[in-house]
Design a protein that fits this description.
This protein is α/β, with parallel strands linked by helices. The chain is built from ten helices and twelve strands. The strands form two sheets. The protein has a seven-stranded mixed sheet with strand order 9-10-8-7-6-11-12, sandwiched between helices. Strands 3-2-1-4-5 form a five-stranded mixed sheet, sandwiched between helices. Helix 3 packs across helix 10, helix 5 crosses helix 7 and helix 6 runs antiparallel to helix 7. 48% of the residues are buried.
């Protein structure tokens, strides 16, 4: 029995995971980076510090017994495009390289975004899409990304990603987090905003600015701020914010269907773990379970396992 280790140190969460290459089960440990009340994120220097502190603790939890490590994977950047870089990913890279050297096993790197997509495919039981000649589309909606991606299975790269749509300004997670912080919630605000929205009794009709496969989400923040000034109930504002993000993704999905017909669709990223959004969009495509939608290292482990030939898709 062998295991592939995956490590992901994003701007939100410290994550590590072990993929059992025999039965494809996973063990996963992760922890949000601490953010002070009222703030909307971390400086990269602080993120690096917290990852450096948290990753050894999580690895200690993950390795509760001796495991035969056959390969290691890590995320090196937010996206697989030139110039995509964040210092926080260096923490995971350094630990992954040390484990690889200590165990004498192969090491693979991929982007945080690819990790999200592969984790979603794993959760949905659709990893076989990687051996198909048929492309699929993936929405990656999180705190730092709102991208619509054309994903083409590739023998060497596993998947080739081309951005074909997304947000032209504010990201879905940013709209949610900024609204949540203004409502007094803790950053990141997704889970708390969802709970608050479930208490809404007076639904406000959502608005979404969408042009083809692209959207603009900055208006959501402005509208929510206006509703606060008007004394609107917090629960109604929370529901409005989530409904606007959901409506924008739905409109983009419908436009995607017009252009790409019956292309399979995967919804990935932390924002897509919201069950209110899922209830509106699941008729169009597949959603991962919440633990595999939010930041995690499972997809990175899957990537390394495929690249190193430890599993056959």
């Amino acid at each position: 029995m062998s295991f592939v280790l995956g490590i992901d140190t994003s701007n939100y969460t410290t994550s590590c995971a072990l993929l059992n290459t025999d039965d494809m089960t996973v063990r996963s440990c992760k922890k949000l980076l601490p953010v002070k009340q009222g703030e909307r994120g971390l400086r990269q220097s602080d993120a690096v510090f917290h990852h450096t502190k948290q990753l050894p603790e999580l690895m200690g939890q993950l390795f509760d017994e001796k495991y035969d490590i056959s390969a290691v994977g890590y995320s090196y950047a937010p996206r697989c495009v030139e110039g995509s870089y964040m210092p926080c990913f260096l923490v995971g890279e350094n630990v992954a390289k040390v484990v690889s050297l200590a165990c004498g096993v192969g090491i693979e790197r991929t982007s945080h975004q690819v990790g999200h997509i592969l984790a979603a495919l794993y959760s949905c039981g659709k990893l076989d899409m990687l051996r198909s000649d048929r492309p699929f589309a993936a929405f990656h909606v999180s705190g730092g990304t709102t991208d619509l991606l054309l994903c083409e299975p590739d023998h060497d790269e596993i998947i080739k990603i081309t951005q074909i749509g997304g947000s032209r300004d504010l990201k879905g997670g940013q709209a949610i987090d900024r609204t949540g912080v203004r409502l007094g919630l803790s950053f990141p605000c997704g889970k708390e905003l969802e709970k608050l929205a479930e208490q809404s009794e007076h639904k406000i009709k959502p608005k979404a600015s969408v042009d083809g496969l692209y959207c603009s989400l900055s208006g959501i923040e402005n509208q929510c701020e206006k509703l606060m000034e008007e004394g609107c109930a917090k629960a109604d504002i929370a529901a409005y914010c989530i409904d606007c993000v959901s409506l924008a993704v739905e409109k983009m999905t419908k436009n995607l269907r017009r252009e790409y017909k019956d292309i399979p669709i995967i919804y990935a990223g932390g924002v897509m773990s919201n069950k209110l959004i899922k209830s509106r969009l699941e008729k169009y495509g597949s959603f991962a379970e919440p633990e595999f939608s939010s930041d995690n290292a499972v997809g990175v482990a899957v990537y390394a396992a495929v690249r190193e030939g430890k599993i056959v898709i």
